[in-house]
Amino acid sequence: MQISTWFVNALYIVYAVLVLSSIFVVISENRNAAKSLAWILALIFLPVLGLLLYLLFGQSLRRETLLSKSNREKLFNSNKLPDVDIDALPFSENNKQLIKMCSRLEASRFYPGNDVRVYVRGNDKFEDLLFDIRNAQKFIHIQYFIFRDDVLGRRIRDALIEAADRGVEVRLLYDDMGCFTVNRRIFKKMAQHGIEVRAFMRIFQFRPSWRLNFRNHRKIVVIDGLMGYIGGMNVADRYVDGDKDLSWRDTHMRVAGPAVHGLQMSFSIDWCYESKNVLSEEKYFPHLLPTGDTGVQIILSGPTGPWNSIAMMCEKIVSMAHEYVYIQTPYFLPTDSLVYALQVAALSGVDVRIMIPNHTDWVVMRWGSFSYISQMLSAGVKVYLYQPGMLHAKTIVVDDELVSIGSANFDFRSFEHNFETNALVYSKEQALRVKEDFMIDVQHCVLIDDLDQWRQRPFIQKIYESVVRLISPVL
Length: 475
Prior knowledge:
Blueprint: H1 2-28, H2 33-45, H3 49-58, H4 69-78, H5 93-106, E1 110-119, H6 122-134, E2 139-144, H7 151-165, E3 169-175, H8 185-192, E4 196-200, E5 220-223, E6 227-231, H9 238-241, E7 247-249, E8 252-256, H10 260-275, E9 294-301, H11 309-320, E10 324-328, E11 332-333, H12 336-347, E12 351-357, H13 363-370, H14 373-378, E13 382-386, E14 389-391, E15 395-398, E16 402-406, E17 410-411, H15 412-417, E18 420-426, H16 428-442, E19 445-448, H17 451-454, H18 459-471
Parallel strand pairs: 2-3, 3-4, 7-14, 10-12, 11-17, 12-13
Antiparallel strand pairs: 1-8, 1-9, 2-5, 5-6, 6-8, 9-18, 10-15, 13-19, 15-16, 16-18
Helix pairs in contact: 1-2, 2-3, 4-10, 5-11, 6-7, 11-12, 13-18
């Protein structure tokens, strides 16, 4: 009896120490006050559950890095392309400031002289990708958040196996949580043919400094160091054939030219973390001559390091718009600073339009997105609800001169918890192309621009929205 009592008391003491130390960590990190207070209250008033939730979802990695200092130097020294005189570029002062800011955040270099193709149909993107895989000569680096064992997944698997069988180096990186329900036989078969397959942050692998909440959401392919792909499309049939009764509308991009170095850098950082192998050899970063006239900057962002790079990039883009800023995103849960930036832009006379899906793959995020519509309408922002299916595109186009295409949604998770990669494209031609795609999609939307009418939506819907809005910072 005495031993039992001692053991229980010891457990109480250990638990109290864990809770108090967790509260101390939350306070010392100086994060968003509302989020910090929410975690402190959860730790105090939700015994055991609060601590478990914090250990899984609440920790910050801002003081951590994916790479050691020596490995980081190896990678960044491998990129031997000459520096660009940003002040001499034929861009507006705002664009020059944006380039400088992003280059300081994550050493995201500006690459001139690229050829860019933008896709809005999955079939077009994946047919081109399969063609490039089948013609690869040296290496293929492929990374997706989701890689399904379906018709499309098996087509790409077979093409990768054929490439590996003819001597091409093939490396595949997938997110373990994103592929949680995927039959792992698709990866085992590739490994049997010599393909190096890695899962990013394995769920059931103990790593004290990593938690379930941080996922790799990037979608990147690099082939021979000459061409690459970046955008929002995962490897799944729904990006080609739709899902159930919903079509999927997404945006992706193929780039050839010097900017492929930026995509390779992104892949190499993640690969080094998982494999401890630094892909810094010259064959992975070949000397690339200009192949077009488009300037591209590859922006990396993640929960490690000091900056929320893509969130800061978005805020800068919105604040520098003079005529218009059009945003497409599947989930719209912006930070307070981005809410203010959008409101300030609209109140200043900028044509601000936001397009989100009326039907989503995750209904909770739908309610969360809807909770911000009133704030947008009050400032004159136009909100479009895309009707045909799931709008999964993550694009921003500004003033006929700048486009952002990548993996990051306009929400807390992408800005703070996920590893993401976006491409900034400095091109009037591409800006007009993405603007045209936006206007085509407008024809399939319902416009929400009447604040009084929007406030008349069902009361129960408002309750759903408010609850999701409350927990959105920790979703």
